[in-house]
Amino acid sequence: MTNYTKTDNNVMLDALAGDRNYVPDTDLSKHFVYNENIFGVYLTANKKFSEKFSAKVGSRYEYTKSQGTVLNDNQSIERNYGNLLPYASISYAPADNHSFSYTFSSRIRRPSFWEINPVRNYLTNTNYTQNNPFVKASPVYNQEFNYMYKNAYYINIGYSQTNDNIAQVPLQKKETVNGEEINILRYIRTNFGKKYEINYIVGMNKSFFKQYLQTNLNLGIQMNRVNGTLDTDPITGEKFPEFILNRTTYSPLIQANNNIRLDKAKSWFFGVNYFYIGKQQIDIGMLKPLQSLDLSIKKVWNNWTFAADARDILRTNIVKISDTQSTGNFNNIYQIQYDNRSYTATITYNFGNNKVKKIRDIENASDAIKNRTR
């Protein structure tokens, strides 16, 4: 596998001059050119030892060569690094109604191109977000154990660890400017310690009432832990009071997806989906509980499908984050004005052409590769 990307971003900002005219701000304007080459080699082996037991092992080696240049400052950042990413899975079915599986996997979480484009987005004169061309890729390691009974009921335990976690960290301090003390707050995109997540889930995927109701239900507990410290702006080198996160939260988790068939002809369907997760520690502070109720209706007529969806109809999926440090610094983010509700209507016609299906499969595979190499 090989993936080559070149981006050219020229962000030009203006400053208000004394005569109330805008003039180019050469200090804050950034022309950033980024080239990235990713080369990958895959090796996989699988073995079926018996009707009850099988295993699969593999590894992927990726080599990344990248160079970013800020043309305004004549500043260049070059990185060349390799990553060995192993994979292993085991499946065991001792009886017809019982199956066990374990999977270990690893991947690289690369910063998005907008995250390394070194521009500032000002919220106020002293409060802004700052992207960072020095952000490194983060290795992510996942483990998952799954038990399934009668292909309908299951227990899932998942573990994820992210090293050099990519986060947006708030740094703040007080400075005296022209005899006046002001508060400075910067949200800096950078690598911030380690992040851990463990999920304990009991679930069910089953049909009821002669397949008129298809239900997928998950109940569980999610553990989140963030462990990191930062006291220096990686862009300017300025010192700040240390921002520390070393906390663990346990959050209840509920997810229910219900598909209801409304007629014998299997042409009308009604969907009711709901999720809830309690407060959880994330890399910028404590995220308040989130929940959402979604509704949908679908009509199938010959090769046509008509569908309508309503997302977050109660407007409960609102981000609220808070954090207070031992220094007395606090950080609150409330997206009260943000409306996550959406309503969509779609009409689809199925041509039944296998060539079209094959093209779609190729496109899906391409999308997977693009997501993998972000």
UniProtKB/TrEMBL annotation:
* Ion transport recorded as keyword: no
Q: Where would I find the Outer membrane protein beta-barrel domain in this sequence? A: 3-349
Which terms in the GO cellular component ontology are assigned?
cell outer membrane
Annotated SUPFAM superfamilies:
Porins (SSF56935)
**What is its subcellular localisation?**
Cell outer membrane
Q: Which Gene3D superfamilies match?
A: TonB-dependent receptor, beta-barrel domain (2.40.170.20)
One Pfam family of this chain: OMP_b-brl_3
Name of the protein? Outer membrane protein beta-barrel family protein
Record the organism: Epilithonimonas bovis DSM 19482
